[in-house]
UniProtKB/TrEMBL annotation:
Domain CXC per the UniProt entry, residue ranges: 444-548
SUPFAM superfamilies listed in its UniProt record: SET domain
MF annotations from Gene Ontology: chromatin binding; histone H3K27 trimethyltransferase activity
Designated name of the protein: [histone H3]-lysine(27) N-trimethyltransferase
Length: 691
């Protein structure tokens, strides 16, 4: 059965000589349900009967199975709680010392607040409301606290100086404080970078605002119903039979135990009946999505030392890529300059190089010479670099800190990897090594341009990875999506649609003379060299003016209460027209997920959604940065948002449209539709309310 609310978590033991009281868990309150008395078993059955009778599932639920399911789940919860308590007890969490003052009727003064913390945690676990001690109700209330002051007196005993300690109690008034007044600001988690979030076709809870908004839109032809937006259902409409904190591990354990008791039941039947008893974990389609994600994530928790990685062509990382994009299928090929072929083939890397024939002849191959880590790295780097033992050996020694000779790497490749696919290198001629001029490049991509002469930067950039020319006939993704090639693409430098960066002077990249700026790209770190991209600041004070997003060089911004609505963002320094202010960061979600979240946000009159490209939005509601506080103004904005391409990824930057003085509030036009404007109040000033 569920635990009663009057359970005492702690009971006192006998007092020790040092006047301390030890408190520990009352184990009688945590007995498994199946070991309870017959009366408790009857209570469970009656509880299940009453619960199902009052619910809408009475006609479809399997009563006998549900009774057994409740008992099994309660037993799992008790075992899980005992295990958790055992771990905490081993760490002496529950051995709490409490000092006793015998002069005041043995009133206990808690030296350690773990007792109160544990009681609070228990109340939360059973759903009881608790008082928030962080909010002070009384303003400027003074009080006295007793503290122990120490005074040292020196006395003489038989000619020796002895220091005695004399204690004295004094009263010190507390410092006056002001009452904390909540400003209804929404909590969020600060993120330093955008990150991809999977779609969630179900909703975790329902608030009254969403229900009213949904009822109002039932007769509207333009709005979808709540059930249409969330095809997998909505959680939180009904209360559970017992309030419990479910985790994927507990649910999976319950399925396993119930499958043994009821072998004729399928997993879907078991899950469905659990949803009848515990609606908060459902509906069934949503629960299956959660469990499937949990099963997929499980292998990722294992040691990945021996995992073979693919290099991301955008950020050039083997692991830890944050581009939120899939890596190209297949092994990308590489290029080698014609002049370097003979040098690499004839120059040994060391005295143990495979190019020295005596090393290869005298070595007899042994599997024991290769640790699992070294063997895995040889295979990984062979795929990445190709048949280049010198390069593979150098990488293993430098980054894996393992010892291996070059000739041993060559022997391993010769024995095990000869038939495996690896990176293929093509020899470039002098003509192929030379990038095409910008004017010729711009002419070649004329068919990609929009009517205003700009490139469609809202399409997702997928770098090409194929042999041959970049064309529709060759199934080049760049040509098919009508976007330019860049240094992450596998095409040669002289590709007709490959952008080779700018050749601007330092400080000129923020003008229309910069090719990168015209295309809506930030300067490329691999190709834009003359603009001083690779240095923060030159001696003459000039540096690249078109790389602030990837450098994360934002202006100083202060967050404080806004006269428009809620909190606002204010300039902490003077900002000139055209200067970069800050990047808008948050969760990267699909358009379908944005539509679902948008309906919820519209009902709550609060939205942080921003269009990123043709397929994605950024949502800064739960995760974001200071840019989420910039308020809306349709008639007096001082900054504007612009989608920029940074190393092939879409990023949103905010730029000043006029000179902004220190202390001015930052405002930009949200471009509300007429439907959205109905939900927002127009201020009597020249500014519009924010979300």
């Amino acid at each position: 059965m569920g635990r009663q609310k009057n359970i005492k978590l702690f009971e006192k033991k006998s007092m020790s000589k040092n006047n301390n009281i030890e408190c520990e868990i009352d184990k009688s309150n945590h007995l498994p349900l199946l070991s309870s008395s017959t009366q408790n078993t009857i209570d469970v059955e009656s509880k299940v009967h009453r619960y199902l009778k009052e619910s809408e599932f009475a006609s479809v639920a399997d009563f006998s199975f549900c009774c057994a399911a409740v008992k099994v789940m309660e037993q799992i919860f008790d075992a899980h709680e005992k295990e958790s308590l055992s771990i905490l007890k081993n760490k002496n969490i529950f051995k709490i010392s409490q000092k006793v003052d015998h002069g005041n009727d043995c009133e206990e003064v808690h030296v350690n607040k773990t007792v109160e913390w544990k009681k609070m945690d228990y109340k939360l676990s059973i759903g009881e409301a608790i008082k928030c001690f962080n909010i002070i109700e009384d303003e400027n209330k003074l009080g006295n606290c007793s503290i122990l002051m120490q005074k040292f007196d020196t006395i003489k005993d038989n000619g020796k100086s002895i220091v005695s300690e004399v204690s004295k109690v004094v009263n010190v008034p507390t410092v006056p404080y002001n009452n904390f007044i909540p400003n209804e600001s929404k909590s969020y988690i600060t993120t330093s970078e955008n990150f991809k979030t999977e779609d969630k076709p179900y909703y975790d809870y329902v608030c009254n605002a969403i229900i009213k908004e949904n009822e109002a839109s039932i007769n509207s032809k333009d709005e979808e119903k709540l059930e249409d937006l969330f095809p997998e259902g909505v959680r939180g409409k009904e209360d559970d039979i017992f309030e419990r904190k479910f985790t994927p591990e507990i649910i999976m354990k319950g399925i396993e135990n119930l499958s043994e008791l009821f072998p004729e039941k399928s997993h879907d039947d078991i899950l469905q009946n659990l949803v009848y008893l515990y609606p908060s974990i459902g509906p069934l389609p949503a629960l299956k999505i959660d469990l499937k994600s949990y099963e997929i994530e499980m292998p990722k928790k294992t040691n990945n030392v021996f995992e073979i990685f693919n290099m991301c062509p955008r950020c050039q990382l083997l692991s830890g890529c944050n581009c939120n994009r899939p890596t190209p299928k297949g092994i990308p090929h590489g290029y080698i300059h014609e002049s370097k072929v003979k040098i690499e083939d004839s120059r040994p890397c060391s005295k143990v190089c495979c190019l020295i024939q005596s090393n290869m002849k005298r070595y007899n191959f042994k599997d024991n010479d290769y640790t699992p880590l070294v063997a895995s790295k040889i295979r990984e780097l062979y795929i990445l670099f190709g048949n280049k033992p010198c390069l593979i050996t150098n990488d293993i020694i430098e980054f894996s800190k393992a010892k291996i000779e070059c000739f041993k790497v060559a022997k391993y490749v010769e024995k095990y990897l000869q038939d495996e696919a690896c990176k293929e290198y093509f020899v470039l001629t002098r003509e192929q090594e030379t990038p095409i001029p910008y004017k010729r490049f711009y002419k070649n991509i004329s068919t990609y341009l929009k009517e205003d002469g700009t490139v469609n930067n809202l399409v997702i950039y997928n770098p090409c990875c194929h042999t041959g020319v970049c064309s529709i006939e060759n199934n080049c993704p760049c040509a098919l999506d009508k976007h330019i090639c860049w240094d992450a693409c596998a095409c040669p430098p002289n590709c007709k649609s490959k952008f080779s960066g700018c050749h601007c002077k330092a400080g000129d990249c923020s003008t229309t003379r910069c090719p990168c700026f015209i295309l809506g790209w930030e300067c490329l770190p691999m190709t834009c060299v003359s603009c001083s991209f690779d240095s923060v600041k030159k001696k003459d004070g000039k540096s690249c003016q078109n790389s602030f997003i990837q450098r994360n060089l934002s202006k100083n911004i202060h967050i404080k209460q806004s006269p428009i609505a809620g909190n606002g963002a204010f300039a902490g320094e003077s900002i000139l027209k055209g200067e970069f202010i800050i990047e808008y960061k948050g969760e990267v979600i699909s358009n379908e997920e944005a539509e679902r979240r948008g309906r919820i946000c519209d009902a709550k009159k609060s939205s942080y959604l921003f269009v990123l490209n043709e397929e994605e939005h950024i949502d800064a509601l739960n995760y974001g940065n200071s840019a989420r506080f910039i308020n809306h103004s349709s008639d007096n904005p001082n900054c504007a948002a612009k989608v920029m391409i940074v190393n092939g990824n879409h990023r949103i930057g905010l730029y000043a449209t006029k000179n902004i003085s220190k202390g001015d509030e930052l405002l930009f036009d949200y471009r509300y539709t007429n439907q959205h404007k109905k939900g927002f109040i127009e201020k009597p000033t020249n500014k519009t309310a924010s979300t």
